[in-house]
Design brief:
Layout: H1 18-30, H2 33-45, E1 52-57, H3 61-72, E2 76-81, H4 89-97, E3 103-104, H5 111-123, E4 128-131, H6 135-143, E5 153-156, H7 159-170, E6 177-180, H8 185-208, E7 216-220, H9 224-235, E8 239-243, H10 247-255, E9 259-260, H11 263-266, E10 272-275, H12 285-290, E11 295-299, H13 309-315, E12 316-323, E13 326-331, E14 336-340, H14 346-349, H15 356-375, E15 383-386, H16 389-403, H17 412-418
Parallel strand pairs: 1-2, 1-4, 2-3, 4-5, 5-6, 6-15, 7-8, 7-10, 8-9, 10-11, 11-14
Antiparallel strand pairs: 12-13, 13-14
Helix pairs in contact: 1-3, 1-4, 2-3, 2-15, 3-15, 5-6, 8-9, 8-15, 15-16
Length: 425
């Protein structure tokens, strides 16, 4: 395609970055064979013909491949960033220039610009919303109720967003079907565990260039993201402490061989702190007071509220940038606390996010979930739905096939046995 998208509306940093972005999009595509197969089918079947679609996602090379697949399926799609620091500007430029997909995303955009882009997305009057954190959906429900009649449904990829959807549903505010992509087995078992685990530590290393071996790393939260982060940190030689509020998750952390204690105790022991809870103010003022001089704090949860940065600012006499995405707060006590990526997703603020191979499955879920909503338009009651098991299984099958692996099939005798209640010992 020629890079002449002058007729498109868009807001990106610089279209001159497009050639580099296109190369990186294509490189990521090599590691996304499942999405490639879906894109090829979409191009033939056009399931999104006549559908206005908004995607609010981290604008990365992997998201670009999802957007390209959706457009191949006939979608009238626009893309906005789901986080002010996660946009890859060359990718945003290439999507506009090379693929003629309107993008409204600039790395480092302020909150005012971010919310403006959410409004621009809603101006598109979407029939389908692919959300990452539920900001677009929540804004529509709170500010543009009259547009609900246009909406077929939404898909949501984050734990944070699913929590918001469940709360919306409980309050009777969810007037349309929502697909919980986050809890698909081919999403959270892989994206949350392997993707977040690797990319979080990648972001820390890129931002600081410190050796993790021998450090004490405190992981707040032992969901799938916490499990992946804790295990990858241990694999690099760190001593890992886990903090939790769930007794069941806490037992699992202990059984997995990690130290377990409340944050009030861990605060004095940690060299590096990583929050992956989806909740707010997991690290608070009293924790900063107890930390070692030079403690490093970062977040891999979706929003930047897991670390109480306001409490840290109140305690600081000086703040300075010591490296890219690395700020040192000097406290009144004389100690310093280092914050990475402004408390936002460190794996996207300071690195490139999840590896393409794992996002292949996550975005295959998004693409197929959106198609499922369109195919079942008017047949689903308002509520939060899981990704259908058959779609989950198909994604896993395609991924194994692409990786060159095969599995066994049940014999007719085995099928009869597992479907019968009369057979016993």
């Amino acid at each position: 395609m020629t890079a002449t998208p002058v007729r498109l509306k868009y807001e990106v940093k610089d279209l001159a970055l497009a050639p580099a972005g296109k190369q990186r999009i294509e490189w990521a595509g090599r590691e996304m064979p499942v999405l490639k197969q879906i894109r090829d089918r979409f191009a033939q079947e056009k399931p999104f013909e006549g559908i206005r679609l908004v995607a609010c996602c981290h604008v990365t090379t992997e998201t670009a491949n999802l957007a390209i697949a959706l457009k191949a399926g006939g979608a009238d799609a626009i893309l906005i960033a789901s986080n002010p620091l996660s946009t890859q500007d060359d990718v945003a430029a290439s999507l506009v220039a090379d693929y003629e997909i309107p993008v409204f995303a600039i790395k480092g955009e302020d909150n005012e610009t971010y919310h403006k882009h959410v409004q621009i997305a809603l101006d598109h009057r979407p029939n389908i919303i692919i959300d990452d954190g539920c900001d677009v959906v929540a804004t529509l429900v709170q500010q543009r109720k009259h547009q609900i009649e246009d909406l077929i449904g939404t898909t949501e990829e984050t734990t944070t967003g699913v929590v918001r959807l469940e709360a919306m549903n409980k309050d009777g505010a969810l007037a349309f079907p929502a697909i919980n992509v986050n809890d698909a087995e081919t999403k959270h078992f892989f994206d949350n565990r392997y993707g977040t685990g690797q990319s979080t530590l990648d972001g820390i290393i890129r931002a600081t260039n410190i050796l993790l071996a021998g450090k004490t790393i405190v992981v707040a939260g032992y969901g799938w993201c916490g499990k992946g982060t804790a295990n990858r940190a241990r694999g690099l030689g760190a001593n890992v402490i886990v903090t939790e509020i769930s007794p069941v998750a806490a037992i699992e952390a202990v059984m997995d061989g990690f130290q377990l204690m409340p944050m009030s105790e861990a605060a004095a022991k940690g060299d590096i702190f990583i929050t992956v809870t989806g909740n707010k103010h997991v690290i608070r003022g009293e924790h900063f007071d107890a930390m070692k001089d030079g403690a490093i704090v970062c977040n891999s949860g979706h929003f930047d509220i897991e670390i109480d940065l306001e409490a840290l600012k109140e305690r600081a006499t000086d703040v300075k940038t010591v490296r890219n995405f690395t700020e040192e707060y000097t406290l009144k006590s004389g100690k310093s606390v280092v914050v990475l990526g402004e408390g936002r997703l460190v794996n996207l603020a300071a690195a490139e996010g999840h590896p393409s191979a794992v996002m292949d499955m996550s975005f295959a879920n998004q693409a197929l979930a959106a198609e499922y909503l369109v195919k079942n338009k008017g047949q689903l009651e308002p509520g939060v739905y899981p990704v259908p098991t058959e779609l989950d299984q198909e994604i896993a099958r395609l991924k194994l096939q692409a990786m060159g692996f095969s599995i066994d099939s049940l014999t007719s005798d085995q099928l009869e046995y597992i479907n019968s209640w009369t057979s016993g010992t």
